[in-house]
């Protein structure tokens, strides 16, 4: 599952980088994926919306076992 999650994160990374941000895989805790938002995304007031509405949605599409994405 970890490799599929990392591959899905590679798919969302370019969109985040276009806005000066990035995402880093930190780990798994059951179905929860732990990530770190970096760059402009790290302090952005829209970070939660980006995480849930974009990153989490894309991961769930690619890896159905993902239950949530958690920012660390």
Architecture overview:
The protein has 72 residues and is of the alpha+beta class. The protein has a single domain (2-71), classed as Fe-S cluster assembly (FSCA) (GMP Synthetase, Chain A, domain 3), CATH 3.30.300.130. Helix content is 46%, strand content 29%. The chain is built from 2 helices and 3 strands; from the N terminus they run H-E-E-H-E. It has helices spanning 2-18, 47-62; strands at 21-29, 32-39, 68-71. A 3-stranded mixed β-sheet has the order 1-2-3, covered by helices on one side. Strand 1 (21-29) and strand 2 (32-39) form a beta hairpin. Helix 1 (2-18) packs across helix 2. It is globular and about 30 Å long. It starts with a helix and ends with a strand. The mean pLDDT is 92.
Provide a quick synopsis of the model.
The protein has two helices and three strands; from the N terminus they run αββαβ. The protein has helices spanning 2-18, 47-62; strands at 21-29, 32-39, 68-71. The chain has one domain (2-71): GMP Synthetase, Chain A, domain 3, CATH 3.30.300.130.
Count of extended strands: 3
- Which structural category do the helix and sheet elements fall into? alpha+beta
- Output mean pLDDT: 92
Tell me the overall shape. Answer: globular
Largest sheet: 3 strands, mixed
Radius of gyration: 11 Å
Uncertain runs = none
The CATH topology, please? Answer: GMP Synthetase, Chain A, domain 3
| Helix content estimate | 40-55%
How many separate domains? 1
The CATH fourth-level homologous superfamily: Fe-S cluster assembly (FSCA)
Q: For the largest beta sheet, what order do the strands appear in spatially?
A: 1-2-3
Q: Give the CA-CA distance, first to last residue.
A: 20 Å
Task: Note the beta-strand portion.
Answer: 25-35%
In DSSP terms, counting alpha (H) and pi (I) runs of 4 or more, how many helices? 2
CATH architecture: 2-Layer Sandwich
- Note the run of SSEs as H and E: HEEHE
CATH domain class: Alpha Beta
